[in-house]
Design brief:
By secondary structure, the protein is mainly α. The chain is about 70% helix and about 5% strand. Strand 1 and strand 2 form a beta hairpin.
Length: about 260
């Protein structure tokens, strides 16, 4: 029997499961809460029990920590910068990796309420990815301003000193500095473009992956869905790494354009 795509394919909009005090709670939001609760339990039940004599779980966590440090260090090529943005990049990377692969758990996406799936991959909801992208860009800009100094940071966008210095040298230098000044203003638009770039890249890949999964699972029954599930999980992990890497690179570019205030 052919697939009924109108009914089977995942809607581009999340489904509203219920309301709390007038606020809509979508199925993607419920999975975010579930992931957050999982992190909370992990911190309470596992991290608090870390000791000088590590258990196998602690060793695994420390290995992940060291790998993340090395990974971010390779992107920033600066120990201080790595230390500054590690909490942000590590949180984004771990959250997105888990969000992108958690629906692989058998039966999780099959739980329904009023014919609606209770849980949906958070990153297949555009609200989630644009929210995280916006927060990430804002935070890395705040950290960059703190790292190189607010004056040097704002100087990346508002190049008044360069214009004054240019006209002091010559008229030609002055007009060239004016061009640089307008380019600096365009960089402000570039910050908003980063949000769009990060959001659409991640959302497009994850949402398209869910659509293809439904099509393949509906058309084939056994071997191919299993292979596709593994491939989809790999892509989900890769997209999380790409997202976190781009945020780290954006930060490195922000701090490299200014000079640290003394």
């Amino acid at each position: 029997m052919p697939l009924s795509f109108e009914r089977e394919l995942t809607s581009i909009q999340p489904e509203i499961i219920f309301k709390i005090f007038g606020f809509h709670i979508a199925n993607s939001t419920l999975l975010i809460f579930l992931i957050g609760f999982g992190f909370f339990l992990f911190g309470i039940l596992v991290v608090k029990k870390f000791s000088l004599k590590p258990s196998s779980v602690q060793v695994a966590v420390e290995m992940v920590y060291e790998k993340l440090i090395d990974f971010i260090s390779e992107l920033t090529n600066n120990h201080k910068h790595t230390k500054n943005i590690f909490p942000v990049i590590a949180a984004i990377l771990i959250y997105f990796v888990i969000s992108n692969i958690i629906t692989v758990i058998p039966g999780l996406s099959s739980i329904t309420y009023k014919n609606m799936a209770i849980f949906r991959t958070p990153t297949s909801d555009f609200n989630t990815v644009i929210g995280v992208a916006s927060a990430a860009v804002i935070i890395i800009n705040i950290i960059a301003a703190k790292t190189i100094g607010i004056k040097s940071y704002l100087g990346n966008f508002f190049k008044f000193k360069e214009v004054v210095a240019g006209f002091k040298k010559s008229i030609g230098e002055g007009f060239i500095s004016l061009i640089d000044f307008f380019v600096g203003l365009l960089d402000i638009i570039g910050e908003f473009a980063k949000i769009a770039s990060l959001s659409f890249r991640l959302f497009g890949n994850i949402y398209a992956g869910e659509i293809l999964s439904i099509i393949i699972l509906g058309a084939f029954a056994y071997v191919l869905p299993a292979i596709w599930t593994l491939f989809s999980s790999f892509v989900g992990i890769l997209q999380g790494i790409v997202f976190a890497s781009l945020v780290a690179v954006y930060y490195s570019l922000s701090v490299s354009e200014g000079k640290t205030e003394k």
